[in-house]
Amino acid sequence: MEIRNLNSSAIRRAGYSAESRTLTIWFTSDPALGYDYYGVPAHIWQGLISTSSAGTYFHLHIEKQYGR
Protein backbone atom coordinates (compact mmCIF):
# COMPACT_ATOMS: atom_id res chain seq x y z
CA MET A 1 0.00 0.00 0.00
CA GLU A 2 1.26 3.44 -0.95
CA ILE A 3 0.53 6.02 1.76
CA ARG A 4 0.69 9.79 1.34
CA ASN A 5 0.34 12.59 3.85
CA LEU A 6 -2.02 15.23 2.48
CA ASN A 7 -1.97 18.95 3.08
CA SER A 8 -5.67 19.14 3.87
CA SER A 9 -7.80 20.42 6.71
CA ALA A 10 -10.11 17.39 6.31
CA ILE A 11 -7.81 14.48 5.41
CA ARG A 12 -4.59 13.76 7.24
CA ARG A 13 -3.32 10.97 4.99
CA ALA A 14 -4.48 8.45 2.44
CA GLY A 15 -3.28 5.09 1.21
CA TYR A 16 -4.01 3.05 -1.88
CA SER A 17 -3.56 -0.60 -2.77
CA ALA A 18 -3.67 -1.05 -6.54
CA GLU A 19 -3.85 -4.83 -6.13
CA SER A 20 -7.09 -4.75 -4.11
CA ARG A 21 -8.28 -1.33 -5.39
CA THR A 22 -8.73 -0.24 -1.77
CA LEU A 23 -8.39 3.39 -0.72
CA THR A 24 -7.84 4.08 2.98
CA ILE A 25 -8.40 7.58 4.33
CA TRP A 26 -7.44 8.94 7.74
CA PHE A 27 -9.44 12.06 8.54
CA THR A 28 -8.10 14.89 10.68
CA SER A 29 -11.09 14.48 13.01
CA ASP A 30 -9.93 10.96 14.02
CA PRO A 31 -6.41 10.40 12.65
CA ALA A 32 -5.93 7.03 14.36
CA LEU A 33 -8.82 5.41 12.48
CA GLY A 34 -8.57 4.64 8.75
CA TYR A 35 -11.69 4.26 6.63
CA ASP A 36 -11.55 1.85 3.68
CA TYR A 37 -13.25 2.44 0.34
CA TYR A 38 -13.42 -0.54 -2.03
CA GLY A 39 -13.31 -0.82 -5.82
CA VAL A 40 -11.54 2.51 -6.27
CA PRO A 41 -9.75 2.84 -9.63
CA ALA A 42 -6.18 4.13 -9.76
CA HIS A 43 -7.21 7.35 -11.53
CA ILE A 44 -9.33 8.34 -8.50
CA TRP A 45 -6.31 7.80 -6.23
CA GLN A 46 -4.15 9.90 -8.53
CA GLY A 47 -6.79 12.62 -8.53
CA LEU A 48 -6.95 12.65 -4.73
CA ILE A 49 -3.21 12.98 -4.22
CA SER A 50 -2.80 15.63 -6.93
CA THR A 51 -5.76 17.91 -6.20
CA SER A 52 -5.43 21.23 -4.40
CA SER A 53 -8.41 20.36 -2.16
CA ALA A 54 -8.45 16.75 -0.97
CA GLY A 55 -11.60 17.25 1.11
CA THR A 56 -13.60 18.60 -1.82
CA TYR A 57 -12.26 15.88 -4.13
CA PHE A 58 -13.26 13.25 -1.58
CA HIS A 59 -16.80 14.61 -1.32
CA LEU A 60 -17.25 14.89 -5.09
CA HIS A 61 -15.56 11.70 -6.31
CA ILE A 62 -15.26 9.16 -3.48
CA GLU A 63 -17.60 9.53 -0.53
CA LYS A 64 -20.85 8.26 -2.08
CA GLN A 65 -19.42 6.45 -5.11
CA TYR A 66 -17.42 3.72 -3.33
CA GLY A 67 -18.54 1.39 -0.55
CA ARG A 68 -16.92 1.25 2.83
TrEMBL record:
InterPro entries hit by this protein: KTSC_dom (IPR025309)
UniProt name for this protein: KTSC domain-containing protein
Stretches assigned to the KTSC domain: 7-66
